[in-house]
Write a structure and sequence with these properties.
The complex is a heterodimer. By secondary structure, chain A is α+β, with helices and mostly antiparallel strands. Chain A has 2 helices and 6 strands. Chain B is α/β, with parallel strands linked by helices. The chains are: A alpha+beta, B alpha/beta. β6 of chain A pairs antiparallel with β1 of chain B, so a sheet runs across the interface.
Chain lengths: 123, 223
């Protein structure tokens, strides 16, 4: 359950971005979650709901999208999308690889109300 | 009216930054650091109790223990004559770089050349948190089942070596150690697989000791 720690970091990142961009209240947060990231989308949602019941992110929606796994063959350099372990390069069959994508969890973008626009939806 | 802001910031960035600071601090003090991870009961502390007497003849060691509660593990380590610090996370399922940064302030850095961190027993969450270590070991006991490596891919992917412990009871829990090793290799063919367990009633972890000695030599030579 390190999802709570992840959400704490997400809230920190979002609040800082809002400040830096002088943006209004956050409507939507798009979070990219790697398939091999060790983070569970349901647990992330649960933590987000619980941690944004009050405060500046109250009412914001968390949208998640899954990032598929991509690997780089250590032998021939081919890039491929592996399915299941063990991974084998489709070009040269080597079992040696480096994962290049699919382990990350990052805030991709935010949708905020423009500051100065009427804040009627807030509160 | 609404606006879209592009962010692209990883949720682990903050931890990574602190961990890099830890790593620099360890390096500045000539300290080689190992992060040991594994499920509760996999035999992490027992492994340490058995390798520390031999390793402490070669290195000045400090151990940081991570648990939800109690000083039990630090006490067990101290009995081997090695200095130990205990982090209690309360309910926390993993150690993070900030916890290590703060605990390490209590360590005698000048008189340490090997820092061993025993993470909270958990094979999922600790994997995600880089602490600033040079080497990672995952400890997995035979009683956890032959297919455990396949069930926990991130743990296999983010370790330098896997230590299979309790090899002496493998036959009683119907586990073929060779198959368990193959399963580690199926997920991460680059990981080293080592064994530890009782041989004729005496705990043996010589493979782990040699591995640590070799890696310390290789990785510290380049520093």
């Amino acid at each position: 359950m390190h999802e709570t720690a992840l959400m704490q970091n997400l809230i920190g990142i979002v609040n800082r971005q809002v400040r830096e961009h002088h943006a209004g209240p956050v409507k939507k947060i798009t979070l990219a979650v790697g398939k091999l990231s060790n983070a569970m989308p349901d647990a992330l949602s649960f933590a987000f709901e619980a941690m944004t019941k009050s405060g500046p992110l109250k009412g914001a929606v968390l949208e998640m999208k899954e990032i598929p796994v991509a690997a780089h063959c250590d032998l021939c350099g081919a890039e491929y999308q592996p399915e299941q372990f063990p991974f084998f390069c489709p070009m040269c069959s080597s079992p040696y690889y480096t994962i290049t994508r699919g382990e990350e969890v990052y805030v991709e973008s935010l949708v905020c109300e423009t500051k100065g626009s009427v804040k009627k939806e807030d509160e | 009216m609404s606006e879209e802001i592009e962010v692209n910031e990883d949720l682990m960035d903050l931890n990574e930054k602190i961990a890099k600071g830890n790593h620099e601090l360890f390096r500045k003090n000539g300290i080689f650091t190992i992060n040991i991870m594994g499920s509760p009961g996999s035999g992490k502390t027992t492994l340490l109790e058995n390798i520390l007497p031999k390793l402490s003849k070669l290195y000045r060691i400090t151990v940081i223990e991570g648990d939800l509660a109690t000083q039990n593990d630090a006490d067990r380590i101290r009995k081997t004559g090695v200095s130990a610090l205990q982090i209690n996370t309360g309910g926390g399922c993993h150690l993070d770089a900030a916890m290590i940064a703060s605990e390490f302030k209590k360590a005698d850095a000048e008189n340490t050349d090997l820092l061993i961190i025993e993470n909270v027993g958990n094979l999922v969450c600790p994997i995600e948190f880089y602490l600033g270590e040079d080497l990672r070991l995952v400890v997995m006991s035979t009683s956890e089942g032959e297919d455990k490596p396949l069930k926990y891919p991130p743990a296999m992917l983010h370790t330098d070596a896997v230590v299979i412990t309790k090899t002496d009871i493998a036959e009683y829990v119907d586990v073929d150690v060779r198959k368990m090793k193959d399963n580690v290799k199926k997920v991460n063919p680059k990981a080293r697989v080592l064994e530890a367990g009782k041989v004729n009633g005496v705990y043996s972890a010589d493979q782990v000791i040699s591995y640590i000695k070799d890696e310390q030599k290789i990785r510290c030579a380049g520093a």
